[in-house]
Amino acid sequence: xxxxxxxxxxxxxxxxxxxxxxxxxxxxxxxxxxxxxxxxxxxxxxxxxxxxxxxxxxxxxxxxxxxxxxxxxxxxxxxxxxxxxxxxxxxxxxxxxxxxxxxxxxxxxxxxxxxxxxxxxxxxxxxxxxxxxxxxxxxxxxxxxxxxxxxxxxxxxxxxxxxxxxxxxxxxxxxxxxxxxxxxxxxxxxxxxxxxxxxxxxxxxxxxxxxxxxxxxxxxxxxxx
Length: 225
Description:
Layout: E1 13-21, H1 33-49, E2 55-61, H2 65-73, E3 81-84, H3 87-94, E4 112-119, H4 127-136, E5 142-146, E6 152-158, H5 163-167, H6 177-183, E7 190-192, H7 216-223
Parallel strand pairs: 1-2, 1-4, 2-3, 5-7
Antiparallel strand pairs: 4-6, 5-6
Helix pairs in contact: 1-7
């Protein structure tokens, strides 16, 4: 049986981690895959950096020195950028960041109580959806924002991570709701927030709303072949 989510303290810190791959996976026709990867990451980072009462970090999965440097150029000074081999490691490494390493702490001065990992390919993500995940973690072990393709736009956990999440699952943004539902030890262990979309193929471009403010770097790449 899993233990209930831990009660929060006013001094608890909350960290949101932008997660991106070391290498590009695709790009729209006629666009540079590397430029596309960085544009998506830049816009998604800007969404996270605008959030109140959270600290922001960037994790590059299996990052090289070059990819870490590229990620650093997208962020505000003081934003931690680090490499991790898996999403699980990216989440747990975030817990070791001190307030000084994460810049000026706006989320508290105590322990890191919760971490939300966000996929890099959601440049028009409403920041409100991330706030909903942090609130859901007051009672759940894990909270997710599902993507239209069955993956997760964002995934948040309390720290330390509940044993059942690592005993029977491999934490990943490709984790499905079905896998979580099958593994959960109690009814409210998993919180599912409002969904959004990720840009993982040319067909996903239709989900972008040109009238929505933001995603400037992504918009610029699409306008200029």
